[in-house]
Inverse folding.
């Protein structure tokens, strides 16, 4: 009876929530109060795929869903983004019959990395994709090893792990397990010889803390790592990007499957590869996956184009407190060829909680913007001075500060026609998007 | 004046932008016409403590800190001697744990610290995170920072921050924070403390000068971006503290 009541309350709550533009986690919260083990009592699809990690969760989940649906499968997933147990409960119950059966081929769950163990205490995924683990929202997550320890209890012995072979830390999840599939990038055109970035989290082995060596890296400390002492090293990938042609915007998987890139970012490549691997493990053919993932345009709005006066602009949403997300977008700008101006906005560090914490700015490798085609960098927002202090330690000289975002936008609108890149977070992006003409 | 900064384990103990403390101090001293050398000490490497003017270590993960301690222990005697001789030192984040007597881990295991101070740290399974707004006896301005730890410190008799208006201190909410003895500055506050607190940077620089028997020059560099950034954060956190 409690089960039925919880399902009805959740469905009603979700319906009402949608009418007022809310409701992705609250209905699940109520349902869990009524029936705390409701997720154990429901009948779930045969395939349950979970995706977690520091970066790429939302994009990877969206692409997995698109591929599986193209393959004829019915997929239920948390498109609304609530990725803790309350949101997952809402997702499951709103797609369940009153008897508690989720009528779908696949339940696909984006899971918050720190709360995955709580989410999966009543059921476990058949496949668990972990995209990567590195510095992300340290104000909330502590540090990557803390998050690693939080995820570990969420990994049921029967769950097949789909792991990033190039990540020294998240690859440790495979220790002592047999059901593991790996995805990774071979040495290719975008590889560097040594780790890059403002800090070096790959300097020491996460297992034994001996020094690590790299044959090559793809970004920061993600690449072909090798401990000099304990043998922890990049495993052979089951699904590998074997070639990358950023000029033509094409990657090749396993030497034969070509996928066109809608967005020429290393992140996009890893997200595509993670999605491809998960779908292949669910029985989708390489051709079907490639057809969907080719030129796939993400719907999550993290990259948006717009016009501001005579300028064409691109918003590159970068999570504050996530230096690698910033680094990746700065790398994208650095790799572009056209003259441009870059606007960096740090106004509200988080949209979810208050903090004045700006230490993470020191983890971002802003020196990547020290290329001839970046003509100017404008630093804006309440923490524009913190940005300026950080920039004063870079080799860049062509930067200025305008803490008032409206004034910064007005100045950029009134003069100049170079391309404009805006680098900021979800918490701040509407502060610029409300002042531009968005493109389709 | 020649100044030698000895930075312990810059890659291993590098969380939260800790390295910026070294950059900030180096630039500050260079703007005072000092000739500054920064020596990075790696695990298994070596250094002559007697030649150092400033010693520092940043925050690391709990596992990294324990790994660092395995190497750091061999510097116990010379570092304690240098501290007793008023050498300037900064230990931030989990590095502070390492200068105490013992560190007890969340799994119940324990290891010895440097023994430069008599406090003990006990790690737990709860992460203590949040902004900090506090006060020190060293100067009138408030100290701002961010706490990100899982340890509770007991046994500090001379804290760096004598009181907090906001945030978690050594052992409790709004309790005293950090450790200060002679010119040893230690705080579990993470990240670039000296960047966020220009007055603390000046205090550390003054300590280096004082050990050489010199006062800090009257004409000192003013880092306007750091000052303005401090002013914004100080106001934000003060208002936050007042609202609580």
């Amino acid at each position: 009876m409690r089960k039925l009541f919880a399902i009805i309350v959740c469905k009603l709550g979700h319906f009402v929530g949608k009418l007022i533009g809310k409701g992705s986690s609250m209905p699940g919260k109520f349902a869990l109060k009524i029936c705390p083990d409701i997720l154990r009592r429901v009948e779930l699809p045969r395939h349950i795929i979970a995706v977690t990690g520091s970066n790429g969760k939302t994009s990877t989940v969206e692409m997995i869903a698109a591929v599986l649906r193209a393959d004829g499968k019915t997929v239920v997933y948390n498109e609304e983004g609530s990725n803790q147990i309350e949101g997952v409960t809402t997702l499951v119950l709103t797609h369940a019959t009153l008897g508690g059966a989720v009528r779908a081929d696949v339940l696909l769950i984006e899971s918050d990395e720190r709360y995955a163990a709580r989410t999966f205490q009543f059921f476990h995924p058949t496949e668990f994709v972990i995209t990567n683990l590195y510095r992300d929202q340290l104000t909330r997550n502590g540090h990557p090893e803390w998050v690693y320890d939080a995820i570990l209890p969420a990994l049921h012995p029967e769950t097949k792990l789909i792991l990033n072979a190039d990540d020294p830390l998240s690859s440790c999840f495979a220790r002592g397990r047999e059901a593991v599939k790996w995805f990774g990038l071979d040495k290719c055109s975008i590889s560097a010889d040594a780790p890059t970035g403002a800090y070096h989290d790959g300097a020491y082995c996460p297992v034994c803390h001996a020094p690590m060596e790299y044959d090559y890296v793809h970004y920061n400390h993600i690449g072909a790592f090798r401990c000099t002492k304990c043998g922890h090293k990049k495993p052979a990938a089951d699904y590998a990007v074997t070639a990358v042609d950023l000029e033509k915007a094409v990657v090749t998987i396993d030497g034969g499957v070509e996928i066109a890139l809608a967005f020429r970012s290393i992140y996009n490549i890893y997200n595509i590869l993670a999605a491809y691997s998960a779908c292949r493990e669910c029985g989708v053919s390489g051709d079907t996956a490639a057809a969907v993932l080719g030129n796939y345009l993400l719907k999550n709005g993290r990259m948006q184009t717009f016009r501001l006066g005579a300028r064409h602009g691109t918003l590159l949403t970068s999570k504050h407190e996530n230096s690698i997300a910033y680094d990746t977008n700065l790398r994208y700008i650095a790799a572009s060829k056209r003259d441009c101006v870059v606007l960096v906005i740090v106004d509200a560090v988080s949209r979810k909680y208050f903090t004045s914490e700006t230490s993470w700015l020191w983890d971002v490798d802003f020196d990547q913007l020290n290329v001839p085609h970046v003509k100017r960098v404008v630093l804006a927002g309440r923490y524009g001075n913190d940005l300026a202090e950080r920039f004063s330690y870079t080799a860049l000289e062509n930067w200025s500060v305008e803490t008032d975002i409206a004034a910064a936008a007005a100045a950029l609108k009134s003069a100049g026609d170079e391309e404009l890149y805006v680098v900021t977070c979800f918490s701040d992006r509407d502060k610029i998007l409300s002042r531009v003409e968005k493109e389709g | 004046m020649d100044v030698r900064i000895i930075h312990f384990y810059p890659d291993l103990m590098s969380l939260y932008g800790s390295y910026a403390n070294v950059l900030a101090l180096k630039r500050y001293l260079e703007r005072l016409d000092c000739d500054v050398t920064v020596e990075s000490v790696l695990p298994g490497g070596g250094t002559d403590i007697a030649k150092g003017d400033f010693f520092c270590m940043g925050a690391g993960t709990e596992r990294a800190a324990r790994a660092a301690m395995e190497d750091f222990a061999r510097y116990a005697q010379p570092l304690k001697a240098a501290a007793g001789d008023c050498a300037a030192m900064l230990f931030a984040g989990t590095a502070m744990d390492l200068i105490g007597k013992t560190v007890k881990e969340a799994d119940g295991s324990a290891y010895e610290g440097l023994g430069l101070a008599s406090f003990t740290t006990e790690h737990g399974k709860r992460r203590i995170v949040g902004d900090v707004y506090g006060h020190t006896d060293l100067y009138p301005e408030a100290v701002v920072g961010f706490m990100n730890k899982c340890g509770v410190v007991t046994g500090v008799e001379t804290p760096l921050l004598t009181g907090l208006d906001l945030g978690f201190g050594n052992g409790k909410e709004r309790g005293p924070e950090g450790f200060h003895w002679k010119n040893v500055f230690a705080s579990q506050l993470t990240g670039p403390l000296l960047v966020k607190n220009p007055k603390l940077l000046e205090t550390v620089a003054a300590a280096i000068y004082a050990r050489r028997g010199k006062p800090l020059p009257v004409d000192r560099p003013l880092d306007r971006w750091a000052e303005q950034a401090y002013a914004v954060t100080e106001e934000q956190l003060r208002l936050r503290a007042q609202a609580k």
